[in-house]
Design a protein that fits this description.
This protein starts with a helix and ends in an 8-residue tail after the last helix. It has 103 residues and is mainly alpha-helical. It has five helices and no strands.
């Protein structure tokens, strides 16, 4: 049981870090925000990610559906970022999505 809790905690931490980088640096960097706007990442989409992050941070034990939604949001944003910023490795790195797998 303790192993499952530790694994779950690592998973939550990984998703939290990914979300944090995406919603902090994505809309805050004009080059990233501009490039990703072509993929639907406007103020509303970034705010959605911020809400997902807030729900995970304020919850003691995030329900699996919240974690699944957060993972899905991160994966979608990661895919969009890699497409939008494929020629900008520095910006991909800033978002934390330069590696093959984020979440």
């Amino acid at each position: 049981m303790a192993t499952n809790v530790a694994h779950c905690r690592k998973d939550v931490d990984r998703v939290l870090l990914s979300l944090y980088k995406l919603v902090t640096y994505g809309p805050g960097d004009l080059d990233i925000a501009s490039a990703m706007s072509a993929y639907g990442y406007d103020a509303v989409k970034w705010a959605e990610g911020e809400c997902v992050l807030a729900e995970l941070v304020t919850s003691d034990q995030p329900p699996e559906d919240r974690l699944t939604f957060a993972r899905d949001w991160c994966q979608e944003a990661t895919t969009a970022a890699r497409s939008a910023l494929s020629t900008e490795p520095r910006l991909l790195s800033k978002l934390g999505v330069a590696e093959a797998s984020v979440t």
